Amino acid sequence: NLRCASVVSVRSSAMSRRRLPVLALSALLLTGCFTGPRPYFSDDPFPTGTMTGDPAIDAVLEKFDAVTSGPATAAYSVLTKFGNTTTQAVAILDAGSRSITIGNVRYVQTPGASLTCTADDQSAPCVEGLDATRVSDIGITIDFYAQDTATRLRRDATATIAPTTAHDEIIAEQPATCVDLPLAGGVAVYCVLDNGLLARLDDGDVAVNLILYGASADAGQLVAVTP
Questions:
Q1: Is the peptide bond prior to 71 cis by the omega test (within 30 degrees of 0)?
Q2: What is the pTM of this model?
Q3: How far apart are CA 192 and CA 112, in angstroms?
Q4: How far apart are CA 125 and CA 152, in angstroms?
Q5: CA-CA distance, 110 to 2, in Å (whole number)?
Q6: Which phi and psi angles does 126 have, rounded to 5°?
Q7: Average pLDDT per run of 10 along the chain, which is 227 residues long?
Q8: Which among 3, 4, 96, 172 could disulfide-bond with 210, CB atoms 3.0 to 4.6 Å apart, if both were Cys?
Q9: Cβ–Cβ < 8 Å for 209, 193
Q10: In the Cβ-directed half-sphere of 200, how many Cα atoms lie within 13 Å?
């Protein structure tokens, strides 16, 4: 090990001047040489399934983590606070396939394909892959209806400045489990339906509200014109 050999060389040349201090320091450095790889940080600091220890937050996270695979259709109003613009979004889920429309962009994902389409032109060919840049200015992602919001909640859970508050609401005629998180910039609100779909998200960046829900899926929305 070249790095470790260099440490030994430095220790030997300095021994006559500061024998004991350098010996102790060298021993410490050499310990790192022989104990394997150095620690590293996870690429995902907020992985699915991790709980926070706060009962009010974890009750919401458990539902997000077990989101339904459908059939389900959920329509949302999305307010992007920077710029004060409102966008409509729709999540359609059924049997391992999904169609997520955000503004004028529709993402279609099936067991055999992942496509990015133009929502108001069904005849236009779609592009292979899920192009996240098409909606980057809106402040949400293709996974906004569950996974991405759960990540936001886990992140905000590390920054609370006061106790959280659990409460239940009826949103779009559906029961929802909610938690309020006091943060330095205000109170963030997270609500989830019993089947794990997002019901409300209101933080410093966006306000996403469920406006319509149905336990069905339009099969025609789960296909797209391939390239």
A1: yes
A2: 0.79
A3: 29
A4: 33
A5: 50
A6: -90, 165
A7: 39 42 39 41 67 97 97 98 97 95 96 90 84 95 97 97 98 98 97 98 97 96 74
A8: 172
A9: no
A10: 19
